[in-house]
């Protein structure tokens, strides 16, 4: 299908049999339509448009769904379009995405005209999910030396091989206006999750990537000028941390913590200035958490067995099929609905079936992906009252 093509979606509503919550399937079940990564901006500010990846014609492209009308519009065409890391600009006028690991592009949503913001040098490849600062004037990116990139295998097998390869990677800071990039950190290490602290470009974050139980120091901060590299949290024995994210107001970095042999997981938070860490509360075995703007509410996805650990038997736990809501003021949680996603790889993609829940802008519903009806699809669940 061509850029600018439209498709009329037919929504299907159902009721969760256990919580009574209304669930709306937005996308057709016969076509894979996963959402983007959970901390990338996917909704327009008024909550009426939603970015997603659509595999129409057996090729993934980036689409924008007008929620009131149900009309989905194709925004990109061709191949190699990374919907997973795509995001909307703060003013909703543009969509940004990476193409084939080589170009970071901006699409004018009114005209669909594309502009290449940054081209990766030939000896490097773009890696991971690239994240803008709050003003969308700069981009935190990660590049891997092309000669060190593992191409054999797929999914979690490739993930482990890339970790073992100890690639040379570099954290970069891209100026959107000029397209110029500055290297902030260059290491012989598998890295990921580059990001700026919201509303404070002086602090950048990233992670040491790899199987969680083989990474003993995951989360890191560094000043934008490349100075003051510091570890966010020292892991306890047999502790792993994962899927860190900034509370959108910039007040703290939050993350999931778990220990080998423990069914529960824990919500953790780090102060970006003092590096004081807080173990906020135990929770069911969620893989991803995302907060509302001020961090007073979190939503999480109960997980299946982990693919991104080395000792799978030692980290086995009872799978949890629920979307959970957490109140940080009362330290309580409740179930929203079942997501029933398989967490299986989809055509070698490790992320497409992950629920990756997040709030709608009005904080009344939760968006998530699930392959509960066959292929990855988009769902909205009302929050319980």
Summarize the structure.
Helix content is 3%, strand content 44%. With 385 residues, it is an all-beta fold. It is globular and about 50 Å long.
Features:
about 375 residues; mainly beta; Methylamine Dehydrogenase, Chain H; 5-stranded antiparallel β-sheet; 4-stranded antiparallel β-sheet; 1 helix; 29 strands; about 45% strand; Oligogalacturonate lyase family protein; WD40/YVTN_repeat-like_dom_sf; Ogl_dom; lyase; lyase activity
Strand content: 35-45%
The neighbouring-strand order within the major sheet is 2-3-29-28-27
Radius of gyration, taken over Cα atoms and rounded to an integer in Å: 20 Å
Counting copies of identical and different chains, the oligomeric state is single chain
Total helical segments: 1
The CA-CA distance between the termini, in Å, is 41 Å
How is the CATH topology named?
Answer: Methylamine Dehydrogenase, Chain H
InterPro entries: Ogl_dom, WD40/YVTN_repeat-like_dom_sf
Keywords: Lyase
GO molecular function: lyase activity
Organism: Uliginosibacterium flavum
């Amino acid at each position: 299908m061509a850029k600018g093509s439209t498709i009329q979606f037919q929504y299907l509503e159902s009721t969760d049999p256990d919580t009574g919550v209304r669930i709306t399937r937005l996308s057709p079940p016969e076509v894979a339509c996963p959402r983007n990564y959970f901390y990338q901006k996917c909704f327009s500010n008024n909550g009426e448009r939603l970015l997603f990846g659509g595999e129409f014609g057996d090729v993934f492209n980036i689409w924008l769904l007008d929620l009131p009308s149900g009309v989905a519009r194709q925004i990109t065409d061709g191949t190699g379009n990374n919907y997973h890391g795509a995001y909307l600009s703060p003013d909703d006028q543009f969509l940004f995405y990476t193409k084939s690991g080589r170009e970071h592009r901006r699409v004018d949503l009114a005209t669909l005209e594309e502009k290449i913001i940054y081209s990766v040098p030939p000896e490097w490849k773009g890696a991971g999910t690239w994240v803008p600062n709050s003003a969308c004037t700069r981009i935190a990116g990660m590049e891997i030396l092309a000669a060190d990139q593992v191409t054999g295998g797929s999914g979690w097998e490739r993930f482990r091989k890339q970790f073992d390869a100890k690639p040379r990677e570099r954290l970069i800071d891209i100026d959107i206006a000029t397209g110029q990039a500055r290297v902030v950190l260059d290491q012989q290490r598998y890295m990921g999750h580059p990001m700026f602290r919201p509303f404070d470009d002086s602090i950048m974050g990233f992670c040491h990537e790899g199987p969680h139980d083989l990474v003993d120091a995951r989360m890191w901060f560094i000043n934008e000028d490349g100075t003051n590299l510091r570890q966010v949290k020292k892991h306890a024995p047999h502790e792993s941390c994962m899927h860190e994210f900034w509370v959108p107001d910039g007040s703290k970095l939050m993350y999931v913590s778990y220990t080998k042999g423990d069914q529960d997981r824990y919500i953790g938070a780090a102060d970006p200035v003092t590096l004081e860490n807080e173990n906020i509360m135990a929770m069911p075995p969620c893989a991803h958490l995302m907060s509302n703007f001020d961090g007073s509410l979190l939503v999480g996805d109960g997980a299946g067995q982990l693919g991104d650990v080395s000792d799978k038997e030692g980290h086995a736990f009872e799978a949890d099929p629920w979307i959970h809501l957490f109140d940080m003021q009362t330290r309580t949680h409740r179930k929203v609905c079942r997501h029933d996603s398989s967490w299986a790889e989809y055509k070698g993609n490790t992320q497409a079936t992950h629920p990756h829940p997040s709030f709608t802008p009005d904080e009344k519903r939760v968006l998530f992906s699930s392959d509960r009806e066959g292929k990855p699809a988009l769902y909205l669940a009302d929050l319980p009252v």
